[in-house]
Amino acid sequence: MRRVLWWLIGGSRGGRNRLRIILTLHETPMNANQLSESLELDYKTTRHHLDLLCENGVLTTMGDGYGMTYFLTDQMEENLDILEQVARKADMTEILPTESSSPEAGVNMDSDGETQNERE
To answer: Helices 32-39 and 15-27, interaxial angle, to 10°?
Structure first.
C-alpha cells in the first residue's frame, strides 16, 4: 500500500487533489458530484481521480449510475497512518486534518474519522 500511495499521492501532479478526496471520503462517503462540489473541483477531474483511486484499491463503490457512492476500502482504512506519512514526506501537511500545523502533532486517525486530538 505504501508504494501505491506514494505513486498516487506523492509522486504525481494530481496527488494533492487525490489526498483531499481520500480525506474527505474518510469523513463522509459521497458521490462524484457531491465530492466535486465539496472540493470545488471540475466534475471530470474528480471522476478521473476517483477512477484512479478505485483502480488502485484505495476506494470502493456502492450503487451505480449517478448516485454511485465512494468509500475508502478496508485496506485503505487500515493504512491511514501510511497515508499520513506519504503526505508529510510529499510536503502536503497543510491538507492533513490536524489541530496543529507542526509535523510532530500527527493525525492518528481512527476508522470513525476522529483524530487522537479530538478524543482527548
So the answer is: 110
Handedness of CA 34, 35, 36, 41 (dihedral sign): positive
Mean pLDDT of 71-94: 94
pLDDT, one tens digit per residue, over 17-48 is 999 999 999 999 999 999 999 999 999 999 99
* CA 61 to each of CA 6, 14, 19, 30, 54: distance values in angstroms, whole numbers, following the listed order: 22, 21, 18, 10, 8
Write down the residue that cell numbers 462540489 correspond to: 37
Look-up of cell digits 484512479: 52
Query: Furthest-apart CA pair in the chain: how many Å?
Result: 42
Question: d(Cα 96, Cα 81) in Å, to the nearest integer?
Answer: 11
**Coil, helix or strand at residue 53:** helix
DSSP reduced 3-state for 98: coil
